[in-house]
Amino acid sequence: MIHAVMGLIINKKGLLLIAQRGEHQPQAGTWELPGGKVEPGENALAALQREFKEEIGIEIIQAKPLVKIPYHYADKEMLYDVWLIEQFSGNILGLEGQSLHWVNREQFISFFDFPDNETSRVGDMLDNLLKNRTRCDDDLNF
User: Fold this and answer.
1) pLDDT (tens digit, 9 = 90+) per residue, 92-126?
2) What confidence category does residue 137 fall into, taking pLDDT thresholds of 50, 70 and 90?
3) pLDDT band of 49, cuts 50, 70, 90
4) What whole-number distance in Å separates Cα of residue 23 and Cα of residue 21?
5) Alpha carbons 17 and 8: distance in angstroms, whole number
6) Residue among 56, 45, 54, 108 at smallest CA distance from 81
7) For the stretch 11-23, what's the b/e string if a residue is b when 16 or more beta carbons lie within 10 angstroms of its beta carbon?
8) Which of 138, 114, 141 lies closest to 126 in space, CA to CA?
9) pTM (2 decimals)?
10) Which PROSITE patterns match (predicted)?
């Protein structure tokens, strides 16, 4: 099983950050939460911090685990470890040439191909986060 981490950043307007996969990556052009694979000997938080520094140039100061999502592809098994980024330093940039975009709740759900039975659960989770969580102070637009 391949273990990967993803981070959810919510700005002060209640928008969520997504990144577009590069041309030479699997599933090129699709949108996803920033993140990447956990390396051998690395824990999930360390992987999240490394990936965010490499991909979007920020230092994660505080993050909280949200959910673990197992996923079965035809050729591999994945475990996605999703975190809420509560505080960071630095400016968000697409350091690997990827497009970055802030989206609202409805756009977020429409960008991803959630199974029908998961769409309402994802929506409920986002509603809870958007109402009750501290948002990052960045107000960047891409």
Assistant:
1) 999 988 999 999 988 887 877 655 555 666 677 77
2) very low
3) very high
4) 7
5) 7
6) 45
7) beeebbbbbbbee
8) 114
9) 0.82
10) NUDIX, NUDIX_BOX
> What one-letter code names the amino acid at 78?
M
* Helix or strand (DSSP H, E) at 127: helix 116-132
Q: What is the DSSP string of 53-119?
A: HHHH--EEEEEEEEEEEEEE-SS-EEEEEEEEEEEEES----TTS--EEEE-HHHHHHHS---HHHH
Residue spans per domain, the chain: 2-132
CATH class (in words) of the domain with range 2-132: alpha beta
For residue 118, the tally of other CB atoms under 10 A from its CB is: 14
